[in-house]
Hints:
A two-stranded antiparallel ribbon has the order 1-2. The radius of gyration is 22 Å and the shape is elongated. It has one domain (about 10-165). Helices cover about 70% and strands about 0% of the residues. It has helices at about 5, 25-40, 45-90, 95-140, 150-165; strands at about 10, 20. The longest helix is centred in the middle third of the chain and has 45 residues, at about 45-90. By secondary structure, it is mainly alpha-helical.
Amino acid sequence: MADITDITSGVQTGANYKVTGNGVFDDIMETINTHIEAQFDADRIQSTDIANMYIGIIPSVLAESMRFVLQKDIEAKNLLLLDEQITNAQKQGLQTDAQTVTAQKQALLVERQTKGFDDDAKQKLLKQALDSWSVAYSVAKDANSIPDSIKVNSIDSIMKNAMDNLNVAVTNDPIGEA
Length: 178
């Protein structure tokens, strides 16, 4: 069963405040913080930009962390249930073609659900990149102060990758006008 420590676990408070957890949220935020720190150290973003980025990033990272943990738990239980059903059918000698097809369909369903969650994560990453770009663009003094990871060419690359993976056709006329 999933619990809060799967999402976040451990913050050392007081004068030596430090995130020490190893939950999904902790790991993702540690990665984000490393990227933000690198951009700050390279003078690509200012300290005021960091607060704006955090405001946009934290809700989606927390939501994705919770979804990831809960889905992982559901998939594990589905696989256990499927294994139990197959084992019971084999023990009873009732493994028929229909049961085999059902088991195969269930396995395909789990596979498609997993791909669906990957697709959803890609869509959310794109939204987060676009939101970050919007914030950076609105506060940037010039184009050089926008971090490379959220410049137009980077977002174009993320968008193309997401569209390719989601099998979205690209047209020259996206609104359908001649």
